[in-house]
Amino acid sequence: MMGHYDPRTVGAQIRMKLPFLTPLEARVVDTITGRNDLDLTTALRQVSEDAGVSDAMVVKIAKKLGFNGFRDFREALVVYRQTDVASLHSEISPEDSSADIIRKVFQTSIQALEETMSIIDVSAFDRAATLLHGARQRDFYGVGGSAQIARDVAHKFLRIGLRAGVQDDPHMMLMSAALLGPEDVVVAFSHSGTTSNVIEAARLARQQGARVIAITNYATAPLSELADIALCSTAQGSPLLGENAAARIAQLNIMDAIFVAVAQRDLERAEAQLARTRNAVDNKRRR
């Protein structure tokens, strides 16, 4: 029976669980996903012998990845392969023309957006928008590339009259977290979900009674586990582009959607504040 999968979610589902497999399990998954001849008739025995493990081990890994068993996993992979989704992501080579490079880079981002949109938990998204709308103080934590996303969102919130503090220094994050209370919200950005500085500050914020929203690429990462709400991007890794580039685009879009949902909660006020902040900047432009 084919077709009950949304192919965009298959790659996402496997990628999100990969960091939590043992090295042996990850190698078995690589062996299975690397087969060009995989189809609906590929036997469990073929796969397990190829990977050098028992049949039971393959079934256990399929279940760990969130499938019912080997046949379910096999079917999901076949469906995924039949779509363009899997083939979009190809490595950059020395022979690539500029047009090839543009296509590959853009397609990687388009794919990250498509897949992320397909896995967004709408009720979690709603709760996050409600929390951010009603918060007294909004703290955004992130280091490196994640801090850039935090700044982008804080800038948008300020335009509609909602202040958000962006902290990208470990000590500043902790000091700010120590001052939060039950009416406050933290948005913690970490691609891996394992950035210790961000986790420490988010944990302290929780201890103060603040709510924590995690924005990460992995649903079962430590940051997601400690958060009240986790909103996940999903992006395939590429040695040259890295996961981060495509994940950043997806995370920016998640936060853009959150921003719109927050503004929608009180559209009249948002529009009035937008006019005020726009006027302040317009005056600057005319000189």
Automatic annotation (TrEMBL):
Where does this protein have coiled-coil stretches? 260-287
What the entry lists under Pfam families is as follows: HTH_6, SIS
The HTH rpiR-type domain covers 8-84
Q: Which PROSITE patterns match?
A: HTH_RPIR, SIS
Q: Where is the SIS domain?
A: 128-268
Q: Which UniProt keywords apply?
A: Coiled coil, DNA-binding, Transcription, Transcription regulation
Q: What is this protein called?
A: Transcriptional regulator, RpiR family
Protein's UniProt keywords contain Transcription regulation: yes
Q: Per the record's keyword annotation, is DNA-binding included, yes or no? A: yes
Native organism? Paracoccus denitrificans (strain Pd 1222)
A GO BP entry: carbohydrate derivative metabolic process
Q: Single GO molecular-function term?
A: DNA binding
Top-level taxon: Bacteria
